[in-house]
Amino acid sequence: MAKEKFTGVKGMNDMLPQDAALWQFVQKTAVDVLERYGYQEIRTPILENTRVFTRGVGEVTDIVEKEMYSFVDSMNGDQLTLRPECTSAVVRAVNEHNLLYGTNQRLWYCGPMFRHERPQRGRYRQFHQLGAEALGMEGPDVDAEMIVMLARIWKALGVGPVKLEMNTLGALDERQAHRDALIRYFEDHKAELDEDALRRLYTNPLRILDTKNPEMQELVNAAPRLLDFLGEKSRGFLNRLEELVSAAGIEYTINPRLVRGLDYYNHTVFEWITDKLGAQGTICGGGRYDPLVEMLGGRPAPGVGFAMGMERVIELIREVGNVPVKTQTDVYVIHHGGDTQTKALLLAEAMRDLNVRVIVHPGSGSIKSQMKKADASGADFAVFATEDELAEGAVSVKALRAYDDGRTVPFAEQTRVALADAPKAVAAALATMRA
Ligand code: ATP
Ligand code: MG
After folding, report:
1. Which of 87, 306, 365, 381 has CA 20 to 30 A from 417's CA?
2. Which CDD domains does the entry mention (predicted)?
């Protein structure tokens, strides 16, 4: 009978062990920075009631119109959705648990999101976002701080230069005036609109500006600009944001065509873009969403946030060649003959007490075959717990690799160490090597 082959779901990737160090580096580096700005982690379920997103993201968006994994729970008929983004879910949780009662919140999250898109480089059906939300604060100082924080994250990650684009979506009445002007403009050019644009003409004309259709770029470039419809307050908001971002020495451009794919934004919108990833060059998007908390049933409270695409950030780090190397194993314990296995297991425990990362050879085997496994493990040292050595209360230690830069390696020659002293000796040798 032919063996059945199993494959993962299209557009959903496995993160393999050889990539784990890089993923952990990115999350840890970003979170270290976030914590320096007072952000705390929040985790929400991967499933939410569909309404959280239809209401929170907006009905007339790419996400809700065609990208959501929604289904009916066959057990009880509930309408559920695999989260396509996390802002709505975080706000749902904040409202549900009254986290804004008498205070504000700085929150970060990291995890998988799901969108039914056409898979391609940098665009997947399961992808990961690391994001943050600052809730209960009006800005624009908070918006500016968020942008400064992101610049610090890019620097810490070593992603090279990324371009900051900002824009404002103004306030609701300004957007409405702009929207009327947009509709009039696009009505005058109806023949040039594609199917998506026609569909959005009266529902969400602002989103036509976000089109990826190259044949519509010229039309869209000449469309009425929201910037020309801004009132005093919105203008002041943007000016102050620009002032603060400039004062921090961060370069940016104002892109009047920048709108977010999500409906709930107002005032600040921004994107960080690289030219090193082809068409999927936006590594991070964010902005202000003052109406959202109330839209999702809470007492009105302003908010601003961002989400970065982990896959894109990681690919960018690879692209600029800044991948940090990290070994997974310090010591491989080889044991041979008699009851050396028990002693090897206990020796490994004693080393782990000292924070050493140890693999004990599983099962048995010749010393030669164990040595091959030790080499392949990437460990720095092999510890030989053989019957002869142990009979004399000793083990021997041997370095498995040399430094490229010619520094001396402890235990370069196989060296005998008293069994009781071995854990300390190995830990000390590792410490000098890592120094
Ligand atoms: P795009 O215009 O590329 O579709 P978006 O506006 O839908 O992006 P957001 O919803 O703002 O993106 O998500 C924030 C970030 O998450 C993006 O800037 C990107 O880095 C990442 N991202 C979004 N969708 C995907 C995806 N399908 N696969 C991988 N990363 C993604
Ligand atoms: Mg999208």
Report:
1. 365
2. HisRS-like_core (cd00773), HisRS_anticodon (cd00859)
Pick the CATH number of 331-434 from 3.30.540.10, 3.40.120.10, 3.40.50.800, 3.40.190.10: 3.40.50.800
Alpha helices (H) in 37-86, listed in sequence order: 50-56, 62
Stretch 64-90: mean pLDDT, rounded? Answer: 96
Residue 302, judged by CB atoms within 10 A of its CB (0-12, 13-18, 19+), counts as: buried
How far is it, in rounded angstroms, from Cα 322 to Cα 218? Answer: 38
Q: Quick one: pLDDT at residue 325?
A: 67
**What SS3 state is found at 400?**
coil
| Ligand 1 atom at minimal distance to the Cα of residue 313 | 20
Can you give the pLDDT at residue 263?
Answer: 61
Rounded alpha-carbon distances, angstroms, from residue 4 to 1, 10, 262, 422 = 9, 18, 42, 49
**Quick one: which ligand is closest to 279's CA?**
1
Per-residue pLDDT at 262? 60
- The residue type at 408: T
Is the CB of 115 within 6 Å of ligand 1?
A: yes
Average pLDDT over residues 214-240: 92
In this structure, the residue with its CA closest to atom 3 of ligand 1 is 280
> So what's the pLDDT on residue 139?
86
Please choose from 123, 153, 313 the residue to mutate so as to test ligand 1's pocket, defined by most ligand atoms within 8 A of CB: 123
Tell me which of 312, 313, 314, 315 to substitute to probe ligand 1's pocket, judged by most ligand atoms within 8 Å of the beta carbon.
Answer: 312
Count of CA atoms in the C-beta half-sphere (13 A) of 338: 10
CATH 3.30.930.10 fits 17-170+230-320, yes or no: yes
Tell me if 168 is assigned to a ligand binding site.
no
Distance CA 297, CA 305 (A): 19
Was 407 annotated as part of a binding site? no
The CB of 210 under 6 Å from ligand 1? The reply is: no
C-alpha distances in Å from residue 179, one per residue of 56, 183, 215, 221, 288: 21, 6, 22, 15, 19
For the chain, give every domain's residue range. Answer: 17-170+230-320, 331-434
Which pTM does this prediction carry? 0.88
Instruction: Name 105's bridge partners.
Output: 135
Ligand 1 nearest-atom number relative to CA 84: 10
- Residue with CA at minimum distance from ligand 1 atom 24: 123
